[in-house]
Each structure stands twice: as structure tokens, then as C-alpha cells.
Amino acid sequence: MKNIAVQIKRIIFAVVFAGTISACSSDDDVKEIFLDREWKLTYINDGGVKIFTKDKIYSVTFLDNGFKVAAPGGVGISGKWKADGGTHEFRCSDIRTSGNIQGDTIATKMLQIFTNAKKYSGDTNWLQIKQQDNVFMQFYNDNE
Asked: HSE-up of 104 (CA within 13 Å, CB side)?
């Protein structure tokens, strides 16, 4: 009787383990992560120094054909983006600004990171756009 119980436990473990392995994927669903949500900036990590947004809201929306940043004072950043769910590579192109970005340290840093972005990490709740491992923007999604 003891052997049967042990064998049943092994079979159950093998079935659950196989199901878990088959459900995992090394590729992110890029559209699920980026699209149909507004990402709000939490902070910028600039070489280990965190720059917080304080009481101002900086947000980015990713569309199929580009992205748009809304910043305080009518400042905007827009451009095209491309991400690879397998390698987590992230690139931006055709980046433009609107409004007076000169006096806005956070928007200026966002522009720099979007211009030089190489990677992303995250899921549908949080997102990092990385220029380097220690230079990135971190966003959260409060739409869910």
C-alpha cells in the first residue's frame, strides 16, 4: 500500500511539474506588457542615484506605431519603439520633443534614456527602460 501511495505522489508531481514547465516561456508578450496601459514614472536611477518625480506625474503610453510621454508644463516626448520579447532588447528612434524641456531635469533625463535605450524588463505591473544596468527609468501601471 505504501508503494502505491509513493508512486501516485510521484505521478502527480511529474504531471504538475510538466504542466509548469510547458506553461513557461522565455519570450515576453511584448504587446501585453507595453500596450493598452498608461505607465507612470516612479523614479529614474542615474548611476545609483535615484531621482524621484515627487508630486509631478510623468507618464508614457506605448502605441503600435510609437510612444508618447506627457510631462508637467506641457512638455512632451514622442518617438517610435521596438522591443524583442526573447532578448529584452528595446530601441527607440525618431524621437522628438515638444514644449520647453530645458528646465525639466526629469524630462531631460527621460529623453536621454529613451534616446540611448538598450533593454527593458518588467511585466504588466512594472516596467524598466534601461540605458545601462544602473541607468534606467522605472514605471508602474495603476490601470489594473
From this structure: 24
